[in-house]
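#struct-help
A.M.: can someone run this one for me? Single chain, 182 residues.
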Amino acid sequence: MAGKLIFYFGTVCSSKTMQLLSVGYNYDSVGWQVCTIKPSVDTRSELIETRAHVPPRRADIILQIEDSLYDYKEAINQADVILVDECQFLAESQIDELRRISTDRNIDVICFGLRTDYTAHLFPASKRLFELADEIIEVKTICSICGKHASYNKRVDSSDADGNIIPGWDNFQARCWQHYEE
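D.P.: on it. Structure tokens below:
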């Protein structure tokens, strides 16, 4: 069987990273070599971690937007599976490389990320994954307002205790179309 390029997409807070950590744990438990990748845009830490208090995992590769995955041959060649967090922030050329690695190495490359930004436009890397992925799976979640299926990311300004907007502090919430538009 040929290796696959798989894209799990969802809104903010849909448990994409938690699923990545779970998949990594499952591969670890059967002795497979897992290579984890995250983009350097995610500056929180070198860890892949979730708000759900699942144990984090160290990223093997922190990819700069100008990097080629082939610059990380040793880690890539040792991998039995590759897991990518926050894949929407990769370059389209890096998605093309993941496709080639999956095919050439005959391994699964599983990407987790957002489909669209808070303006409801596709991220370029996500668009490329929709074009190239063998499997596309939505990680479903509910609207933070009404509980219906959420497909959009709404940017909501954060406020202090007095109701003043905190500049530069953005929150994102999963929303259905009706509550996204409001």
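A.M.: thanks! The first helix runs from residue 16 to 29.
D.P.: also worth noting: The two ends are 47 Å apart (CA to CA).
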